[in-house]
Amino acid sequence: MKPAHFFFGLLVLSVVSCKQDNEIKVYRVAKEAPAAAADPHAGMPGMMPGGVIPGAADGADPHAGLSAEQLAAAGAAMPQSQQFTDKPPAHWKKLSPSAMLLGKYLIEGPDGATVDVTFSTLRSAPGGLLANINRWRDQLGQGPLDEASLKQNTRTVPSGFGEAVFVEIEGLVDKADAKKDGRLIGAIAESGASAWFFKLRGNEALAAAERENFINWIGSVKPAESSKVPMHGSAPGEGITPPEEAAVVPAGDGSVTWDLPDGWIVVNGSSARYATIAITGADGSKGELAVTRFPGDVGGDLANVNRWRGQIGLKPIDGAALAANVTQVTAGPKSIKLIDATGPQNRCAAGWVAHGGETWFFKFTGPDALVGAEKEKFTALLESVRFNKPE
Q1: Using CB atoms within 10 A as the burial measure, which of 162, 256, 376, 389 is most buried?
Q2: Phi, psi at 58, each rounded to 5°
Q3: CATH classification of 60-223 is 1.10.3720.10, yes or no?
Q4: Gap between the Cα atoms of 285 and 279, Å rounded
C-alpha cells in the first residue's frame, strides 16, 4: 500500500471515529434525566408554589395555595435537617423532603391507591387558623367555614409541639385522580409565633384507613434534642428564642433603606424575603412587617389588594372600588400606594411601589388594635423609604 493511501485511510478512520464519539455523546446527553427546571413563578405572590396543578393531590407541598409572599412572610422556622424525631408506622415509606418540608412519607394501598403524609413548619400560620383550614378545604373543592362552623368541624389532638387543631375534609375536584386524592386529614399546632403543619392527603378510602395511624404519628413528632437552634415561637430553654432576644441582622442587600421606628426590630432577611421586622404592642400582641420584591407588577394592583383581603378573610373588591380603598404616601421622589383592611381576626396595612422593573411590598399584619396603634409608625417608615439603585 502506498503511503499516501495509508495516511488517507487513517484520516478517514479518524473522522469516522470522531463522528461516532460525537454521536455517542449526544445520545448520552439526551438519555440523561434533565435537571429539575427552576419554577419561573417561584417567589411570586398569587402563584401556587411548585407549579401545583389545581385538582391534583399536593402531598409534596403542604402549603399549596399560599402565595409565595405568604410563604416568605411566614418564613421557615426550622432548617430542613434532622430537627425532629418521630415514630412512623412500619409500612410508611420515607421520602426525601423538599425545601418546604421537614418530613415526607408515602403510603401505598391496593390497586394503585396512594396517600402522602407531610410535616412542615413556618414562623406563623399565614392568615390564621381559619384561613389555613379553608385553604385546605378549597383544595378539595369544598366551601369555606366561618368561625362558628370551624369549632363544630374540628377537634384537638396532642402533638410534640402542643395541642393541634385536627380537621378532616372529603372532596374530589374535577379531573383529580381518585387513586391519589379524595380526603385530606390535617392538623395545625401553634406555639407563640410558630406553626407546625401535619397533613395526610390522598385516596379517600386509604386515607380514612390511616386516620388513627396518622393521629398516633402526630403525637410522636417531637423536636430533636440536638436541634437547639434559635427559632421563633417557643420559650427559652426549649431551643427557641423570642423575637426580642433574636440576633438583629442587616436587612437585605442595601437596595433600599428606611428609618426603623422605635421598638421595631429587624429579625431577618432571606432570598425570598428582603427583610422581616417584628412589632410588639404594649399589651404584648405581636405583628410583623414583611418586605419583599418581585419582578413586574405581580398581577397588578387589584390582584394584589384582593389577595391580601382574602388572606384576612375579606371578600374581593372590583376595579371600581379599588380607588376608594387605596391611598398614597410620598417617599422622596416615589409615591407608595397603601391599603389598610381589617378582617375578622387580623388587619393588614400594605404598601407597594415599582422600582427598577420590580414591585416592592411592605406588608404589616397583626391584630387590629396593634396595627391601628402602630399605623403612624408604619406610615413614617414608608415615607422614609429610599432606593439606592437606579430605575
Answers
A1: 256
A2: -120, 40
A3: no
A4: 8
What fold does the segment set 243-387 form as a domain? Answer: Jelly Rolls (2.60.120)
Measured from the Cβ of residue 292, the count of other Cβ atoms closer than 10 Å reads 25
Q: Average pLDDT, stretch 114-139? A: 82
> Which one-letter DSSP state was computed for residue 228?
-
* Domain spans of the chain, in order of start: 60-223, 243-387
Q: Residue 283 is placed in which grid cell? A: 399589651
Residue pLDDT, tens place only, 87-105:
999 999 999 876 667 889 9
- How large is the average pLDDT for residues 202-212? 96
Alpha-carbon span 276 to 250, nearest angstrom: 10
Contact criterion met (CB below 8 Å) for 140 and 21: no
377, 261 Cβ separation under 8 angstroms: yes
- Flag the least confident range among 65-69, 156-160, 338-342: 65-69
Residue with cell 424525631: 85
